[in-house]
């Protein structure tokens, strides 16, 4: 699993990897030419009494370093282009796993998001850097030594291979110790978080000493793990001594023999340049990088990719602790189906709580416009979260295009909550965040559809300051952003609560004309009049039908409509004074009077809501 994640990140853009190889070759020019240029500068220049020749060869080396400096900049940019998407993927996995697990106060998940993902990102970048540098340096030095004097190769490359082998043999032990240290770190974080959340209870019960002892044990275990890790990492010193400095000793000790073989002083000095200026730093970087970053990456990836499943709600079964590795799936359309859905909030081991949603069946065809109506706290937002895949039902299933909601590809559905998110950046960047390929014409269409023309003129292409926008403007930006997205299922969870009725009607009309399936958790009852169908949730009965059917069948809905319309009927122009915009109701349509009908009962299964 870890290997696949790393390889996927590397091969995400093969063209970027190819450019990285090309720039790495250019960056390795000093390693290829350094020793040879020094040898020629000494033998053919300074030692021969021709300082001009010597300076010319040193000029060649300086030019190689200039090329390497430019190449190093390009290399860093290319590595960043590989590492940053890798970090985003890991963070998405951690957040998705934490949401699916449904555990409150999961400090281990917080540690993964705040600390371990960044560790993995930094470690991955460091590994690419040091491994790439060592490989290209080793090849360059081997070619340079073979060109300069093949007789010195046995004095240099075998010790390097031996030192590298010693280090690689020690890596499993390093990984084990690093894993133990990270687990101890998570345990310490969990112990401290639990203590901090219960300080009042600890003080009230006089349990300060006992709690301090428990937290102290976790800290002690973490310290012991850190010391054990430090002892194992000492093997890196031995590996570096053998691979980087033993060749220097062999060259100096064998200098008389090399001279008898016809090797000049310039060649010996050039060989030392290859070893000390190129090979030793590259090997040191590899040992340091893999010894710290490599082990850290392996362990943190193991922790990050091991995403536990949701806990048992009532203590009847053990939580699923297998990693959640199923990929997101593209749904077949945007039809929404709920079958026997039951959901309750509650912690494992406690008495089974009353369900918020119980035995709900619902079929919303693709292209439908459904308004969800009900009193506050009845479960409308819970239903929206289930549809969006943020919550998993205790029983039954929620399908979007035939795919379980939790498995739907994120880009295929969108949920807009009450509090809209706008990030610092231009208006265009905010609007195209979910649709980077949107054309300027399409963006202008969204700006006009959601009444953002004044905001666009005010910004004049400059960055937005979210703090300076009103709550309504932030909602309009979020709505327009989703309008431009490829999502075919859109859920508006009171996401127009800060808009005036005219702006709300305009936004809902834009989404209705956009196509796809639209589910609106109504903030105003006027949203129900604009919808094709209305779902009424009142805690004891759940009803589905058109506006007219619900006025006749649901006392709660009729009551809500009655309060809103003021007990009079009329045309759309007359309702503008009560908050419904002209055009929100058909020109010749009659509006049902807001009077409460006699209670009516529906036959059959009241929870069966198939259209």
TrEMBL record:
A GO cellular-component term linked to this record: plasma membrane
Composition bias, Acidic residues: 318-331
Residue ranges annotated for the ABC transporter domain, each copy included: 336-564
Coiled-coil regions, chain positions: none
UniProt entry tagged with the keyword Cell inner membrane: no
Stretch forming the signal peptide: none
Gene3D superfamilies reported in the protein's UniProt record: ABC transporter type 1, transmembrane domain, P-loop containing nucleotide triphosphate hydrolases
Protein name: ABC transporter ATP-binding protein
Keyword Transcription found: no
Keywords recorded for this protein, A-Z: ATP-binding, Membrane, Nucleotide-binding, Transmembrane, Transmembrane helix
Disordered as annotated region, ranges: 308-333, 587-611
Annotated Pfam families: ABC_tran
Localization of this protein: Cell membrane
Domain named ABC transmembrane type-1: residues: 20-281
Regions crossing the membrane: 20-39, 59-83, 123-145, 151-171, 237-259
Single annotated GO MF: ATP binding
Membrane topology (UniProt): Multi-pass membrane protein
């Amino acid at each position: 699993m870890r290997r696949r994640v790393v390889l996927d990140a590397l091969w995400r853009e093969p063209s970027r990897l190819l450019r990285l190889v090309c720039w790495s070759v250019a960056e390795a020019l000093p390693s290829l030419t350094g020793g040879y240029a020094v040898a020629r500068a000494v033998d053919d220049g300074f030692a021969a009494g021709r300082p001009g020749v010597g300076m010319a060869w040193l000029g060649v080396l300086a030019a190689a370093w200039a090329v390497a400096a430019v190449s190093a900049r390009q290399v860093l940019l290319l590595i960043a282009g590989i590492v940053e998407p890798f970090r985003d993927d890991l963070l998405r996995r951690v957040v998705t796993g934490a949401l699916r697990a449904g555990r409150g106060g999961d400090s281990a998940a917080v540690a993964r998001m705040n600390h371990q993902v960044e560790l993995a990102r930094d470690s991955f970048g460091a590994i690419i850097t040091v491994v790439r540098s060592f490989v290209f340096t080793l090849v360059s030095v081997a070619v340079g030594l073979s060109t300069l004097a093949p007789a010195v190769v046995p004095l240099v490359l075998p010790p390097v291979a031996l030192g590298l082998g010693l280090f690689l043999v020690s890596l499993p032990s390093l990984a084990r110790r690093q894993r133990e240290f990270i687990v101890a770190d998570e345990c310490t974080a969990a112990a401290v978080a639990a203590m901090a959340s219960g300080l009042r209870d600890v003080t009230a019960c006089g349990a300060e000493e006992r709690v301090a002892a428990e937290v102290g044990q976790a800290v002690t275990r973490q310290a012991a793990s850190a010391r054990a890790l430090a002892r194992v990492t000492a093997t890196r010193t031995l590996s570096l001594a053998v691979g980087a400095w033993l060749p220097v000793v062999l060259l100096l000790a064998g200098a008389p023999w090399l001279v008898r073989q016809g090797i000049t002083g310039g060649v010996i000095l050039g060989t030392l340049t290859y070893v000390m200026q190129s090979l030793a730093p590259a090997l040191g970087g590899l040992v340091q990088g893999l010894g710290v970053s490599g082990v850290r990456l392996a362990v943190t990836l193991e922790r990050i990719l091991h995403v536990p499943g949701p806990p048992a709600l009532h203590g009847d079964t053990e939580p699923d602790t297998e990693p959640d590795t199923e990929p997101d799936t593209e749904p077949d359309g945007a039809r929404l189906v709920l079958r026997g859905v039951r959901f309750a909030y509650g912690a494992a081991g406690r008495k089974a709580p009353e369900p918020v949603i119980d035995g709900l069946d619902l079929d919303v065809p693709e292209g439908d416009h459904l308004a969800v109506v009900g009193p506050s706290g009845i479960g409308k937002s819970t239903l929206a979260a289930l549809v969006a895949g943020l919550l998993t039902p205790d029983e039954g299933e929620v399908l979007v295009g035939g795919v379980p909601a939790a498995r739907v590809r994120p880009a295929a559905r969108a949920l807009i909550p009450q509090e809209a998110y706008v990030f610092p950046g231009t208006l265009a960047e905010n609007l195209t965040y979910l649709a980077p390929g949107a054309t300027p014409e399409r963006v202008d269409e969204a700006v006009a559809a959601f009444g953002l023309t004044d905001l666009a003129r005010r910004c004049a292409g400059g960055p937005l300051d979210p703090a300076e926008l009103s709550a309504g403007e932030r909602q309009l930006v979020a709505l327009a952003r989703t309008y431009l997205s490829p999502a075919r299922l859109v859920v508006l969870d009171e996401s127009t609560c800060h808009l005036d009725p005219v702006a709300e009607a305009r936004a809902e009309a834009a989404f209705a004309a956009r196509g796809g399936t639209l589910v609106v958790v109504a903030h105003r009852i006027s949203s129900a009049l604009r919808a094709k169908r209305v779902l009424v949730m009142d805690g004891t009965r759940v009803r589905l039908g058109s506006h007219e059917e619900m006025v006749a069948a649901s006392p709660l809905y009729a009551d809500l409509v009655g309060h809103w319309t003021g007990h009079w009927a009329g045309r759309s122009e007359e309702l503008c004074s009560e908050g419904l915009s002209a055009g929100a109701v058909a020109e010749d349509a009659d509006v049902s009077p807001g009077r409460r009908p006699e209670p009516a009962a529906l036959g059959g299964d009241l929870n069966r809501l198939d259209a």
